[in-house]
Write a structure and sequence with these properties.
Length: 171
């Protein structure tokens, strides 16, 4: 009986590791039938890569694109920014994407990224152009970020209102 249990456990292990290999291989090979997509060992790695090269942190993480200060660690990424973007539209703030992801199912997130059209300088044309698989990987990555999701970013201001000053870079 004991031996059987070990055998079964061993077999399950082989099967599980086999499954692991298959799913890793599938991700790495990347199913491009619905458009180009990033290949990575896991969906979360793909999402992290897309967030980094997509510049999402530049506007959705304070201090990220500032020169002269220490870059925030990943534990602080995408919590929204108090750095205002002022133009003819008024002043907008990169929203807290952790809260956005928390408030949307994955399908709702895909729909938001497909149809999004809010204030500049959010690069909606670029984000809308992401393949569905990439949109899903970005969502899975954001949902995987640990720790306190932070507070909502300030609400946008109309063109006439004065922007609140951006936080000074950390020294
Ligand atoms: C150049 C600055 C900038 C960059 C780069 C940027 N964003 Fe944004 N994003 C914004 C701003 C500003 C808003 C808020 C617009 C508003 O208030 O109407 C926003 C809003 C959003 C929203 C809507 C959130 C909500 O709750 O309504 C999503 C989703 C989003 N961005 C995703 C992304 C992703 C994903 C990336 C990277 C691929 C990205 N953004 C890169 C500036 C940026």
């Amino acid at each position: 009986m004991h031996r059987t249990a070990i055998l079964v456990a061993g077999l399950a292990g082989v099967l599980l590791s086999g499954c692991g290999q298959v799913s890793t291989k599938t991700t790495a090979e990347a199913d491009v039938s619905n458009g180009p997509t990033v290949a990575a060992a896991t969906d979360i790695d793909a999402g992290r890569y897309l967030v980094r090269i997509g510049g999402c942190n530049d506007c959705h993480t304070p201090q990220y694109a500032m020169t002269g200060g220490a870059q925030p660690p990943e534990s602080e990424w995408l919590k929204g920014s108090t750095e205002g973007h002022t133009g003819p539209w008024g002043t907008s703030y990169g929203k807290n994407l952790r809260l956005t992801a928390a408030g949307h199912s994955e399908d709702e997130w895909v729909h938001l990224l497909e149809t999004g059209d809010s204030l500049p300088p959010m690069p909606w044309p670029s984000v809308r152009a992401m393949s569905e698989a990439d949109k899903r990987n970005v969502y899975r990555y954001i949902k995987s970020l640990p720790g306190d999701p932070g507070q909502p970013a300030p609400a946008p201001l109309p063109p006439s209102a004065a922007a609140r000053p951006a936080a000074a870079p950390a020294t």
